Amino acid sequence: MSEITSTRIGQTQVIRFNRPEKMNAITRDMYAGLTSALNDAAGDFGVRTVVITSEGDHFTAGNDIKDFMANPPTEESSDVARFLASLLEFPKPLIAAVKGNAVGVGTTMLLHCDIVIATPNTSFSMPFTSLGLVPEAGSTKLFPELVGYQRAARIFMTGDPFTADEAKEMGLVETITSDPEKVAMEIAEQIGQQPPQAIINTKALMKAGKHDAVAAVMKAEFQIFALALQSEEAADAFMKFMSKKSK
Ligand code: COA
To answer: pLDDT tens across 85-136, in order?
Structure first.
């Protein structure tokens, strides 16, 4: 079975990370799968809302470190850059149902979702600097704007995780529940009953004020991220993770 599945349930497209044995760490192929699932959903009039969720106990452990070492994404045409662009441009409501670990892009992608539902035990983290990298997905703009500069600086610069309660208080999570997928599907169904063009226009208006600035920040982040990926700091951090895993 594919490591990204995309299934239509009524008017909702459910996109699912499906690599639970590796904590849904995201490979190049999975980024490509996410991009085509999002683009298909954007172009399909029958799809009113997308729910993004995961198989297993975790949302995602973020970028697959082994794959990053083998295939560092340095071009703007890379699968990861294309995924982030499709996320920024996605025109319909995007609801995330998260649980367990939401690491790296597993947290930064939530900044682009319209509604995030999480379990009480979800742990959010963005340990980019610990890996010798920089935050991505426009998060160096979106996260400080959401939580305040100093709180964002502390989280980015320490790599410390934060809880679902903290995420809700920050405004990153809308609802905490033991069954986020069920709640996400209920909300998706309710939105699906609304006039679709009114929903698309509302999202476009809500995002318009920031769109161009976020696109510019994403571009800058990607350039530095691509360089950092080839740095000694990143190589050391990646080797440390890999050697821990092979013990
Ligand atoms: N890339 C590749 N493989 C990963 C991964 C990642 N980002 N995160 C987890 N995995 C794999 C592990 O290698 C392990 O596979 P194995 O059983 O074949 O060795 C499996 O997923 C389970 O992970 P494990 O580390 O054993 O679970 P844990 O509960 O001890 O730790 C984490 C969980 C999330 C703290 C730990 O996996 C981790 O730090 N992962 C890296 C997170 C990260 O830095 N992501 C990149 C952000 S840019």
So the answer is: 999 999 999 999 999 999 999 999 999 999 999 999 999 999 999 999 999 9
From the CA of 125, give the closest atom in ligand 1: 47
Q: Which of 67, 98, 103, 125 to mutate to test the pocket of ligand 1 (most atoms within 8 A of CB)?
A: 103
Q: What spacing in Å lies between the alpha carbon of 43 and ligand 1's midpoint?
A: 34
130 CA closest ligand 1 atom index: 44
**Which protein residue's CA is at the shortest distance from atom 2 of ligand 1?**
64
In tens, the pLDDT along 156-180 reads 999 999 999 999 999 999 999 999 9
> Would you tell me which CATH number, out of the four given (3.90.226.10, 3.40.50.1820, 2.60.40.1930, 3.30.70.141), belongs to the domain 4-179?
3.90.226.10
123-125 vs 162-163, strand pairing mode: antiparallel
Q: Distance between CA 15 and CA 66 in Å, rounded?
A: 23
Burial of 23 (0-12, 13-18, 19+ CB in 10 A): buried
Q: What is the pTM of this model?
A: 0.97
